[in-house]
Structure formats: C-alpha cells, structure tokens
Design brief:
Elements: H1 5-22, H2 29-36, H3 50-65, H4 69-75, H5 82-98, H6 100-113, H7 117-141, H8 147-166, H9 182-192
Domain HTH tetR-type: 5-65
Organism: Streptomyces pharetrae CZA14
Keywords: DNA-binding
Length: 196
C-alpha cells in the first residue's frame, strides 16, 4: 500500500464526491482516480479494496462534518439553556449545508451498509459512537434534558437533515411561521428540549 498521506486524503475526498454523486455502485477505483485527477490505478495502490475505501470515507466525512472547535468554544460561553441547544442545532445544520456532498455521502454509506455486513458493522459503530459522544457532551455541558432528550433530538434533526439535503421542497411552507430551516430547528428544539 502506498503511504503518501496527502494523496490518500485527496483520494478519500474524491471518493466522497463520487459516492455522493453516483452512489455506491458508481464508487469504483477508476472513478475515484478520475475525480482526483490522478493516473488510473492510483487508488488501488492506496486502499486494500472497496470496503477499505468505504471505511476511510466514513472516517473522513465525519471529520469534515465535525464542529469547528473555535465555534463550539464560542457557543459554549452562553448560558446552558434551550437557546444554547438551538444555537448548537443551527451550527449543525450550517455544517451540513456547507458540506452537502459530505452528508449525501453519509446517506449513501447508510444505504450501502444495508447490503454489506462488514460495512454495516463498522458504520453502526461509527454512528453509535457519534450519538454516544453527543449524549456525553450534553451531560457534561449541563444542557437541559438528559439522554432521552439527546436521542429524540438526534432522531428529529436526522429527519430534518435528510429532507434538507435530498428533498428540501417538502418542507417549504409546511408549518406557518416556521421558515426552513431556522424555524423548523426552533420548533424541534422547543418540542424536545425542556426549558431549564
């Protein structure tokens, strides 16, 4: 296996683009090479196989969509209340909007995991660790509500993020006085997160 870390990262990012645009069936080493603008056969020198590429895409896209530590630090200076949870959810939606391709790749990974047991196992661990991190973060930050609040918020925001990245028109005007996405984020947080 080739070990140039910059080239590997560029190939994984190219894989994210291909996966988001073409789906799992279009994710071939040849397509990744073309997207990255490298000679044919380059990707096969960096990944043991398609499953290896998919696992590395999973890790990379989660890193791309992670909160910016400086933004998070600034947000966490606010009082630990429902308004802060709303601000955190707005940050999440903003990150998804800025890297729609990354989020679409995650959705494709989710679908591909239904067909590939090895990917299902690794992807389930990846997503579960993100959920558990969110629960721990919520507890340690002293935000209102408990683990149930975080899980319900996760499920509601997941639905919103899927709609925004795949069929945004579904939500346009669906609730009077709740513009997309800000008004819907506020409604979700109000419905799920206790006040104090």
């Amino acid at each position: 296996m080739a070990s140039n870390p910059e080239r590997r990262a560029a190939l994984v990012d190219a894989g994210i683009e291909v996966l988001a645009r073409e789906g799992a069936r279009g994710l071939t080493f040849r397509a990744v090479d073309a997207e990255a603008g490298v000679p044919v056969g380059t990707a096969s020198n960096y990944f043991a196989g398609r499953d290896d590429l998919l696992r590395q895409i999973d890790a990379r896209v989660h890193a791309r969509l992670a909160p910016d530590p400086q933004v998070l630090e600034g947000l966490m200076r606010a009082p630990k209340d429902r308004a802060l949870v709303t601000a955190l959810m707005h940050d999440l939606i903003g990150r998804i909007a800025r890297d729609r391709t990354g989020y679409l790749a995650l959705l494709e990974l989710r679908l591909e995991a239904t067909r590939r047991p090895a990917l299902r196992e690794s992807y389930t661990k990846s997503v579960r660790s993100q959920l558990e991190y969110g629960m721990e973060f919520h507890r340690e930050a002293g935000l209102p509500g408990g683990d149930t609040t975080v899980v319900v918020l996760y499920l509601a925001m997941l639905g919103l993020m899927v709609e925004l990245t795949t069929l945004p028109g579904v939500l346009d005007g669906v609730l009077a006085g709740a513009p997309v996405p800000d008004g819907l984020v506020a409604r979700i947080v109000t419905a799920v997160v206790p006040e104090g």
